[in-house]
Amino acid sequence: MTVAGASVTVPPFAVVPGGQVQRTLAGREKQVVELVEATYRWHAAGDSVNPPSYFLRFPDRPTARIIALPASLSGDVRVDGLKWISSFPANVAAGIPRASAVLILNDPVTGYPFACLESSIISATRTAASAVLAADQLTRTRPRPTRVGFVGTGLIARYVHTFLAGTGWSFDEVGVHDLSSDSAAGFRGYLERAGTPGRITVHDTAEQLIRSSDLVVFATVSARPHVHAVSWFAHHPVVLHVSLRDLAPQILLDAINVVDDVEHCLKADTSPHLTEQLTGNRNFLTGTLADVLDGRVTVPPNRTVIFSPFGLGVLDLAVGKLVYDLVLTAGQLQVVDDFFHEVRRHGRLGGLR
Ligand SMILES: NC(=O)c1ccc[n+]([C@@H]2O[C@H](COP(=O)([O-])OP(=O)(O)OC[C@H]3O[C@@H](n4cnc5c(N)ncnc54)[C@H](O)[C@@H]3O)[C@@H](O)[C@H]2O)c1
What we know:
Blueprint: E1 3-4, E2 7-8, E3 14-16, H1 18-25, H2 29-44, E4 48-49, E5 54-57, E6 65-74, E7 78-87, E8 99-106, E9 113-118, H3 120-138, E10 147-151, H4 155-166, E11 173-177, H5 181-193, E12 199-202, H6 206-211, E13 215-218, E14 238-241, H7 249-253, E15 256-259, H8 262-265, H9 271-279, E16 285-288, H10 289-293, E17 305-308, H11 313-329
Parallel strand pairs: 3-9, 10-11, 10-13, 11-12, 13-14, 14-17, 15-16, 15-17
Antiparallel strand pairs: 1-2, 4-6, 5-6, 6-7, 7-8, 8-9
Bound molecules: nicotinamide-adenine-dinucleotide.
Nicotinamide-adenine-dinucleotide is lined by residues 87, 89, 92, 98-99, 123, 127, 151-157, 177-180, 183, 206, 219-222, 226, 242-244, 309-311.
């Protein structure tokens, strides 16, 4: 990338806008799920550096946050970088998405940033791919779910559904529940426009939805548990707990719990974190998704299974680098000329500059 012969050079700096990201990833659901699976394995094998995410919060805007996720990958994909993602839930009332993000890719040889990618799409994509990978892996020991339900129906729910459909899942019933009837209606409209097979039902309560789904996706913006009744899970569904803070500890204590990364997930008042605080131990954790992938953990068919993914920066890097490589190969990279201007340590020859 930057090593020409024995000399190391400053890489060009590119900007990849959201439209390009979306066009590049469209229809690649299976490829992205495979890449996310490989990345989990590299992470588990130690071919990554993924320090804790840093949460920037604001006393005057308590619902807002911006999170920094620095990471480094050294598996088959080699790249360093940073995701910088804002969550401003009040945006939704103004009709614009809650989350916005950029991803910076850094060259592992020189450290130079070589790309800035629009990253709300990359983030939603890797989140959905991770959830769908978990759905596939965690249902291998039970009949494949035929009834899916979405609690919280914003952008992430739409991406999870797109990834389920794009990797061959089809359901007899699709349940929808959201505190906002506009969101529920909007999601239903999306499902209908997408030609989703099966019966679509909008549920008035989370209880109705959970009781009538074998695969439950939580993608709300709830800051604290709003689901407390273990009895709602008596049919032992598989739960993709993408939004991390919906379930009370007693639900987790009655379930098989799989996370993406233990240290990451037991932070920031996630439901697993609350469960650790309540019990004083981590015995309720069954393992990581990488443990399931590698057969170190098998999931019994007669228990509720909860996947709580904190969301790892290495996944953003892997998907971001895929987008960058595909755009580069297509000859469509938009380079910002002269972005790194001061590239000679002692100045340019023949002038003050
Ligand atoms: N784990 C990860 O890797 C990861 C990655 C990206 C996003 N997320 C999380 O996914 C969640 C959804 O993100 P989004 O961009 O789709 O948000 P969004 O704002 O577009 O949609 C969230 C929806 O949840 C609804 N909602 C809020 N509280 C609810 C409740 N108690 N019951 C039912 N519905 C409720 C809202 O009305 C809204 O329609 C966020 O919490 C975000 O942090 C997780």
